[in-house]
Amino acid sequence: MIGNVHVKAGEYLPSFKPLITLYEPNPSQVIAYVHESLLVKVNVGDKFIVQSMQDENNKFEGQVVGLGSRIVEIPERLRKMPDLKTYGREVVIKIPVDNSLLQKEKVKILFPQNLQNNPEDNNAK
Fold first, then answer.
1. pLDDT at 116 (0 to 100)
2. What contacts 43, CB < 8 A, 6 or more positions away?
3. How many structural domains does the chain have?
């Protein structure tokens, strides 16, 4: 599926610049952010529930496959207060490819009830 076209007919592009971007129909991973002030221990292999913010019944299990090695600015779209810059650690969560999410859809990440008594919500895209 074509995601973006980066050039118009007759336009010149520098070498090694993409002409188009291709997307899978559904995402295969979610990039989440754990706020830097949370004392949450997240490890590769941990499992989480990924839930659509548009449809609470659309949820499935995902597994952490990567962790950021530094603190980064959380994207404005994912902040509870968009005007206040916040920082956190990136967490890459692999999800089933047969999901019905849209590319770049905002989702909610939940700790499975059996792993933690008091679930903390984190936003992701």
1. 47
2. 64, 67
3. 1
Among 71-75, 79-83, 115-119, name the most confident range: 71-75
Kindly state whether residue 73 falls inside one of the protein's structural domains.
yes
DSSP 3-17: EEE---TT----TT-
Q: According to the model, what pLDDT value does residue 35 have? A: 86
Half-sphere exposure for 51 (CA within 13 Å, toward CB): 13
Measured CA to CA, the distance from residue 99 to residue 62 in angstroms comes to 11
State which residues form the domain around 49: 26-124
Q: Which residue has the higher pLDDT, 80 or 63?
A: 63
What amino acid occupies position 94?
Answer: K
d(CA 121, CA 33) in angstroms, rounded, equals: 10
* Model pTM score: 0.73
Separation between Cα atoms, residue 59 and residue 66, nearest integer Å: 21
Whether 91 is in a domain gets the answer: yes
